[in-house]
Amino acid sequence: MPWEDLGAHLLALLIYPGGLAALALGLAAEIGAAWALVPERGGLAEAARGTLRALRLQPMNLAPLAAWAWVLALAAASQLAAPFNRVPPAERNSLVAAAALLGATWLAWSWGWGRRAASPPLVLAVQACWLLAVLLPSLGPGNLRPQALGAVVLGGQVPLKLACGVLYLACLPALLMLLPESAPQGPPGAVARPRTPEEAGFGVLRVLLWMPACGLFTSLFFPSADDALGLLRFLVVTAGAAAVAIAVAANLTRRPAGVTRLLYLRLALPFAGFSVLVAALTVVFIH
Question: Is residue 198 within 8 Å of 66, Cβ to Cβ?
Fold first, then answer.
């Protein structure tokens, strides 16, 4: 790989849309989630203090699994169709982004297996549905480049994109580990005390997941452009996806135990089957 290409990939990984950009967006989203999920603990300022206190860690004691999960989360962010992303569009791949996101979350699960109210079967089912939402829109265009998929806004792909977009948003709370059943390190705002270095490391992981998880939604379902308006649209839609995930998680966490699993099994799984049917009809219609 030429040095210029290597520098572009490192810039995307460490600065934008990964690294610093992911940390900034993730901190804002994490504070908002802590405020929405545990409102009885005080206002936004108190949620910010609690979040920063929970994320405090000692780098020398950071779990290796958490460090590798951070790398995977940032690698997923580098694949986004974000305006001004230095990685060439032809080298970005939605399957690579999805695999990196799933790898990062399952490194967290390998560390926190069996903790708290975590439910691995629920997480597996939701992640399978989410993976369908990521991959099904590529059947018609025949490629996996996020920028090309997001550019499809008219024609026979619209019903499929609508179905997959709804399915993607429904799966986001579990993918982002906002629910007790899907968060081995605990959901945002759930811990008032300072966490152990391992818990804090995986808390930081969730901060880094907001950009790739929500930004991939924007990349797949909305067109992108390398200009100021395109950047504004990307940020607004990405923030909107994060807000939807927080709102869904806040609603589910206020319901009795077991309701989350029931809703996902009775609604998300059948809707995933419906999306597969729409994808099959779309392919028949297009070809």
Answer: yes
